[in-house]
Design goal:
about 40% helix
């Protein structure tokens, strides 16, 4: 490559980043990488450099970039019909709902698009159920959540966030939420006692991803389930990041033999192609909705349903859950061997890990990793998150882990 060509390709990257900086709101601070193509666990930037994707779009790419089965399902549907709105039925809708309900061992599905929409719908479900089934007095329902949560960025959801970057300057905030220390069962029991019959739901992430892949104490989810059952309260599990194979099981709740009353699903449900989310529950819970009381123009559209049905079919094989468990154990063991002088803690389950450093900046580590050909994401200052696609090969995973050792050593 000539010097002239090299300068021109660098300018190409600079031009694209300058366009984004000039014309998009600065609500993100991306790494200086401009991706042009992706396949499997790898992406290629506009200059032809390849990177191993160890983030997988926060679990939206559990099956990697452009998985052939998912791309084929999308193409088949693109040749037929992509959108009809919920004013009409289409031939993918009923099968999608039935197949997702079966996967989750539930009865009904309410499809949406983004993860935040699923959480908002879960909140509406809990409140409506509380008023119309449980008998909570109007406008008095209480939903319990936990510190460090990340359920989305709508005004209602950030009202119970403890991340000031996500919450500040968006008030007045929505009432009706109690926020407790994550994993604190005594605090949960006391808060449920205080709310009494007004307590509608406990909204919990089985593992807190945005907080740095925080795994709760053993038995926490099982005790949450027990307390909710005893008090007639809905247990709502936000498995938008943790679900659909990420932790080595279809749902992270399964790893404590827990079935919540409501699953909130998203990200990987769209196969990395479409935003697809859903609330999945029993007939006695989701049956509270009547026509006109909630909806979404794009929720449950034909293209989304066709892709999600293929995702469900892939998960039914158990292959991806087994890969996550097997390769995840290998990844966790190698990360645990990083020098204690540099790494304060490694947390995670399956192919999902948070590495918290003693002094290193998470951003600086991610920048160094990008230079070495690995993409990861920092969070909360001194932590990086790792969530490679479940299709990653063991040799590629080891290649990435070698470079993580190099970056922090």
């Amino acid at each position: 490559m000539s010097l002239h060509d090299d300068v021109r390709t660098v300018r190409r990257t600079d031009e694209l980043r300058a366009l984004a900086a000039a014309h998009s709101a600065h609500n993100y601070h991306p790494l200086p990488v401009v991706i042009a193509q992706g396949e499997g666990a790898w992406v290629t930037d506009v200059e032809g450099r390849r990177y191993l994707d160890m983030l997988a779009a926060y679990s939206a790419l559990n099956f990697g970039h452009r998985h052939p089965r998912l791309v084929a399902a999308a193409r088949r549907q693109l040749d037929r019909v992509t959108l009809v709105s919920r004013a009409f039925e289409h031939d993918q809708f009923g099968p999608f709902c039935a197949e997702l309900a079966e996967l989750a061992d539930m009865e009904m599905v309410l499809p949406m698009n983004s993860g935040a929409e699923a959480v908002e719908t879960g909140i509406k479900t809990a409140r409506k159920w509380a008023y119309e089934v449980k008998g909570v007095p109007a406008d008095q329902a209480v939903i319990i959540t936990f510190e460090g949560n990340f359920h989305g960025r709508t005004t209602t959801i950030v009202s119970f966030s403890t991340d000031e970057d996500a919450r500040a300057s968006y008030g007045p905030y929505t009432p009706g939420f109690v926020v407790l220390p994550y994993g604190d069962l005594d605090a949960l029991s006391a808060a449920m006692d205080q709310a009494g019959s007004r307590c509608a739901a406990v909204l919990v992430e089985p593992i807190e991803g945005e907080a740095g892949v925080i795994v709760p104490p053993p038995g926490f989810l099982a005790r949450v389930r027990q307390l909710c059952t005893e008090r007639g309260v809905l247990m709502i599990a936000d498995e938008i990041q943790s679900g659909l194979g990420r932790t080595g099981a279809t749902f992270a709740c399964e790893q404590e033999d827990v079935r919540p009353d409501v699953y909130l699903l998203g990200k990987a449900l769209g196969g990395g192609i479409m935003p697809v989310s859903a609330v999945v529950s029993s007939r006695s819970v989701l049956g509270v909705f009547q026509p006109g009381q909630h909806g979404s123009t794009f929720g449950g559209n034909p293209l989304a349903c066709a892709i999600a049905r293929e995702v469900i079919a892939m998960l039914r094989t158990g292959e991806y859950q087994r890969r996550s468990a097997r390769l995840g154990a290998h990844m966790q063991a190698r990360l645990a061997a990083l020098p204690a002088a540099v790494v304060r803690e490694v947390r995670g389950r399956g192919l999902w890990a948070g590495v918290e450093f003693t002094e290193l900046s998470g951003r600086a580590v991610c920048e160094r990793l990008a230079e070495l050909g690995v993409l990861a994401k920092d969070t909360h200052g001194n932590t990086i998150r790792l969530a490679p696609p479940l299709v990653i090969s063991e040799s590629d995973l080891d290649w990435a882990l070698d470079r993580i050792e190099q970056a922090v050593g």
